[in-house]
Amino acid sequence: MRQGLRVLSWNIHGGVGPDRRYDLARIVDLVAAHDADVIALQEIDSRGRSGSAAPLLMLTEALGEHAAEARTISAPDGHYGHAVISRFPLLSPCVHDLSFRSREPRCAISAEVDAPQGRFRLVTTHLGLSIWERRVQSARLAALARVGESPCIMMGDFNDWFSFGWVRRRLKRELPARTMERTFPAFRPFLRLDRIYCGAPARLLRSWTDAKAREISDHLPIIADIAFD
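^ thats the sequence. predicted structure below, dont judge the formating
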């Protein structure tokens, strides 16, 4: 029997799998199989697709009732970024700019989630590839984790492949529990790029990945059940 809140984070590689086929339906099928309450998806790309809002709209209609997005790149034919999709209301959603100098724009999404298990603060993100930009970004994430009195869950693609990199160092005090599964590259994962963090009174019950995702993206999803003591 399932316990607690179930969350899932996945870098979907623009909806394009290793077979170079764009197919959101197989993403929906895999995510839906895990029956997650709150989902964070990175690299949602509508550029060159049928309508700038089509991918997020399709994903939201299939996976949840509430959504918030961060558009980090906008173009005449669409946009690119990440989003959170939830079964439960997202209160006061906010996009925080984490961009560093001339590097690719980066953002975090924060919101209060009014879940039956209890209200909590959610932060989702997709961090940069440079060690130095992650040093700055991780400090901002730690500050976001301290906001408010609700327990915080933070998840996304942190691009931090070091066991004690800047993200882990900055978040350890605020959010001591984290997932440890390897998620990248999907065909033979050895890097823990995708993670879920939480802090008391939120408690990580269990976490896992799904190897079937190697046929859909270059990342595996990370899934976790979380309880609120």
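Residues 131-145 form the longest helix (15 residues).
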